[in-house]
Amino acid sequence: MKNKQIIAVVDDDDDDLFLIQEAFKVCLNEERVLIATSGMDLLSRLETVKILPSFLLLDLNMPLMSGFEVLGKLRADPRYNLMPVLIFSTSNAQPDIDRAYELGANSYVKKPDSFNDYKSVVEDLCNFWLRVASTPSSRFYR
Predict the structure, then answer these.
(1) Which neighbouring-strand residues pair with 87?
(2) Residue 100 in contact with residue 70, Cβ under 8 Å?
(3) Beta strands across the sheet bearing 107-110
(4) Distance CA 24, CA 7 (A)
(5) DSSP category for residue 132
(6) H or E element that contains 116
(7) Can you spell out the DSSP letters for 12-76?
(8) Helix 67-76 vs helix 94-102: angle between axes, to the nearest 10 degrees?
(9) How far apart are alpha carbons 116 and 93 in whole angstroms?
(10) Which residues contact 115 (CB under 8 A, 6 or more apart)?
(11) Which of 28, 119, 122, 127 sits most deeply, having the most CB atoms within 10 A of its CB?
């Protein structure tokens, strides 16, 4: 795994955020997770980070700005349009999945139902996106 990689998570549900953070602690053995509780929070925090996230887990169902809206804004901005965005949602509805991919999502993952399943999914995501996949360097999108 490359040094100084961070993961971003956008979710408005405290319980989901807790499970995600705990699962990433197991996977990464340290805290390198940028947490945002809304789309607006994420967009403002991206403006100030020195290193863009290796990937972003994005919830769909959030107040004020939905995950679809956040994804659209990220894909419209050349600074972030190549950053891997993984939809992480309770919805398993095919129209939501289709729309996410149409807007440029790199992956769509249904949120697990238990902490053990969270750990398994997060480990799979870390293994793929941080160890297996090659992604653009930040010079292409920052």
Answers:
(1) 58, 108
(2) no
(3) 33-36, 7-10, 55-58, 85-89, 107-110
(4) 9
(5) I
(6) helix 115-126
(7) S-HHHHHHHHHHHHHHHSS--EEEESSHHHHHHHHTT-SS--SEEEE-S--SSS-HHHHHHHHHH
(8) 20
(9) 23
(10) 19, 22, 23
(11) 122
Compute the distance between CA of residue 102 and CA of residue 27 in angstroms, rounded to an integer: 30
Q: Give yes or no for residue 6 having a pLDDT over 90.
A: no
Q: Which two tokens stand for residue 91?
A: 């919805």
Please list, residue by residue across 49-59, b when 16 or more beta carbons sit within 10 angstroms of its beta carbon and e when fewer do. eeebbbbbbbb
How far, in Å, CA of 33 to CA of 122, rounded? 12
User: Mean pLDDT, the chain, as a whole number?
Assistant: 88
Confidence check: pLDDT of 3 > 70: no
Query: Could you give the CA distance from residue 57 to residue 55 in angstroms, rounded to a whole number?
Result: 7
The answer to whether 129 and 1 have CB atoms below 8 angstroms apart is no
pTM of the model: 0.89
